[in-house]
Structure formats: structure tokens, C-alpha cells
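Notes from hallway chat w/ T.B., transcribed later so I don't forget. T.B. wanted the structure written out for a chain they're using in a teaching module, and asked if we could keep both sequence and C-alpha cells in one place. Agreed to drop them here.
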Amino acid sequence: MESSNDSSSALSIRLRQADEPLPLPLLLIGDPDRMSIEFYADHCRWWLAEYENRPVGICGVLQRSQEEWEIMNMGVLPEYTAQGIGSQLLNEVLDSLRAANAGKVTVGVRSSSADALVFYQKHGFRMTAVECNYFTGPEQELRIEHGIHSRDRVLLERAWSDSIRRRKPVALSHFHASVSIRIAQIRDAGPLLRMKKRLDEQTSYMLLEPGERTMNEAEQRDMIRYALRSANSNIFLAEQDGQIIGYLEVMGGKVSRNRHSAYIVVGVLQEYANRGIGRRLFHTMLQWAQDRELHRIELTVQSVNDRGIHLYRSLGFRIEGIQKNALLVDNKYVDLIQMGLLL
């Protein structure tokens, strides 16, 4: 990579030490949202680019699954741009992740950030999706770049083909093979909300009665956006033939003392119940939670939901307490059982 001066030749790139403070000015270059940074900073692996012992570039990646990592933040001080530092930093990060058996690395870029889109594509990333209106929530600050309103997010991916060959084949029934488990994206807001409302009408095991769910599509979109940007929250979907048939929301604690813990809400449409979908959602979530080094998963279940209690116990959850007469369901008081799992 050509450089306008010799700063790149004097550049050193290293992993940040666990007890080393993060340089906030650099973080704000890659992500101006301080609140967002607080959610993922402690869970990321960080690389620092230094020139004469001064941090001039940074890249933080978050492990999304056993083989998938996401670039959450990358920035170079303005006075050090156009000198090849970003390329050296990204190459070091990609080489390190590849050596750690990563299968793919993803990154989300504002659709108006032309320079970033070119930069990542030059380093082997390919565009995989566009999440419309990702940056148009009520708490999102409207940005204009190159005269373009920054509303959408472009997802890019760098994958290594040999990672597919490393995976062990899994034998599935025809039905299970047709059901996929994936992470919810912004575009899923409408279908997911409609599925939740349908589930409210099908079962009394959910908290809300039919018609009580006041969340609108914009609010559901904000919830998904929050989960995607958080290090300890996520929403998993079960999908068959393009239809959402089940979901599992895991919402992590928001303060230092409970960020190691997360609360679960799960639901599967009645016509797909008792077919192993809930278990698959949990298995996917638990693998993700272990990758994120979460320590505690908790949930509540109605005492009359025998199948749910059996499933949770089979997964290792233990009963921690009973809230007597916590709910009034069909004019009958129902106990709520608190269950927890330590990872």
C-alpha cells in the first residue's frame, strides 16, 4: 500500500490489553453514538494501530457465533488518513481472525458512506443486504454525507470458502431441514410483529392477551436495531419458506452489575408446536450466549405450562422461585415460575 509519508513504515499494530483503557476520541470516529459504544465495548476484541506510541487507529470486532465475527467500530485519526494505516490495521485483524478459524467477518456501513463501501470491498468484502431505514429511529441523528441522507445500512461480508468444508454435516428430517434459525434483521420488523400478535390469539401462555400488544412496526424495528447493536442482546427467528414461525428474544442487562445476565422470551406458532423448534431456538441462543461469555440466562413460565417447564428443565434450567398468583388468566390466578441457567 502506497503512503504519502513514512508514518506507515513506523506503524505498529497490536491487540489491546484487557485492563487498558480505550481511546474514546478514536472510538467516536468509527461510531459517534457513545451509548452504543458502551453496550459493545467490553465484549469486543480490539486492535490498536500506533505511531510513535500514540494510538492513531482502532478496530473492534465482536464474536457473533462460533465462526462469525462483526466489525463494530473502526477509525483512524483524520491527520493519519490516506496513508495506508486503515488497510494495514484491517489486514492484521482479518489475518488474526482467520488464524482463529473464523468463517466470515461482517460489517455494517451507512449507505451514504461511499469511502467506507469502497474501502471494505477493496479488502474482499461483498455486499450481502441492505437494511432500509436502519438509521431513522427516533433516537437516531440524521446525517448527511456527500449530499445524501444517511438512512439505510449496507451489510458486507468477507467469507473464507474453506470454512464450509470444516463444518460437520448434520442429518435433519425433511421438516427440520426446511426450518432455518437466524438472527432478526431490520426488514423482519413487520412480519415478526404480526407473528407475535397471531401468537397472542393462539395461546394463553404469553403475557399479553389478544389486542393488548400496542407495539407498532417502528417500535419493533427499533427493538431489532437495539439488539443488533448490543453485545448481550439478540433476537433469533425460526423461519420456514420465508414465514416466521417462532422467535426467541434475549435481552441482556444494561448496567455493569447485570450485563452478565439476560432475560428470555420465546414463542412458536401453535401449528408448529412440539416439533423441536423451541429447542433449536434455545440451542442457537445458548451457543451465542457462551460465545458472548454471558453467565446467567433467566425466564419465567406459567406453572400450568407443563411442556414449557419440561423443555426448560431438559436444557438445564432450574426452578429458583414461585410468584404466587402472579397472573390472572381466564379468570383464574396462575403462579409464575422463575427459572435460571448458569453457563
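Follow-up for T.B.: The mean pLDDT is 87. Might be a good example for the class.
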